[in-house]
């Protein structure tokens, strides 16, 4: 897990507390993408949680489901304009974990994190889904390697074992 020069892949310095444990990095992940009305996500905090080669991969339902792998920068480029406009700008955004299943072996952890999304100014959640998060412990900290997620739909309800 080093760059071509042999240096660790780290582009943004994290808050040491954010990367000290699996619980902390998951909490920091959700906090980094949540924001108050008139604000925006804490992109640098988000960047600091991922390996430089980290990926975010949504699976979008449809007749032919779409899967699009993005780097953190690609995710910010794609999501940033949407989150800076319309209802998100006026109302803010809150995504929170509502349930979790964790499996680990050595320095490798896989988290099934059930989430719900709502506007920060209140109201009922408008989206739920599952984040499949892969983490690694390397160089005295936790890193997010990949987040792969899918939103719940009427034809794809969340399974009971992934609910609180």
Could you walk me through the main structural features you see in this protein, from its secondary elements to its overall organization?
- This protein is of the alpha+beta class and 164 residues long.
- The chain has one domain (22-154): Nuclear Transport Factor 2, Chain: A.
- Helices cover 23% and strands 35% of the residues.
- It has four helices and six strands; from the N terminus they run ααββααββββ.
- The chain has helices at residues 22-33, 43-49, 72-83, 86-91, and strands at 50-60, 66-67, 94-105, 108-118, 127-137, 142-151.
- The chain has a six-stranded mixed beta sheet with strand order 2-1-6-5-4-3.
- A hairpin with a 4-residue loop joins strand 5 (127-137) and strand 6.
- Helix 1 (22-33) runs antiparallel to helix 2.
- It is globular, with a radius of gyration of 16 Å.
- The termini are far apart.
Give the averaged pLDDT, no decimals: 92
Q: Please, how many helices? A: 4
* Order of secondary-structure elements: HHEEHHEEEE
Helix content: 10-25%
Under the CATH scheme, the architecture is Roll
DSSP strand content: 25-35%
User: Structural class of the helices, strands and pairings?
Assistant: alpha+beta
The Rg value, from CA coordinates, equals: 16 Å
Give the count of structural domains.
1
The CATH topology is Nuclear Transport Factor 2, Chain: A
Largest beta-sheet details: 6 strands, mixed
């Amino acid at each position: 897990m080093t760059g071509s020069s042999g240096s660790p892949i780290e582009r943004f310095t994290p808050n040491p507390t954010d990367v000290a444990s699996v619980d902390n990095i998951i909490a920091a992940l959700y906090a980094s993408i949540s924001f108050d009305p008139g604000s925006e996500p804490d992109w640098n905090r988000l960047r600091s949680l991922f390996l430089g080669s980290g990926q975010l991969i949504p699976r979008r339902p449809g007749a032919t489901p779409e899967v699009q792998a993005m780097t953190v920068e690609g995710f910010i480029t794609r999501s940033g304009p949407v989150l800076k406009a319309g209802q998100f700008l006026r109302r803010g955004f809150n995504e929170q974990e509502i349930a979790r299943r964790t499996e680990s072996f050595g320095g490798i952890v896989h988290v099934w994190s059930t989430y719900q999304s709502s506007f920060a100014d209140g109201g009922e959640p408008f989206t739920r889904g599952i984040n499949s998060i892969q983490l690694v412990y390397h160089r005295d900290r936790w890193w997010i390697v990949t987040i792969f997620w899918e939103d719940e739909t009427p034809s794809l309800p969340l399974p009971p074992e992934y609910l609180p």
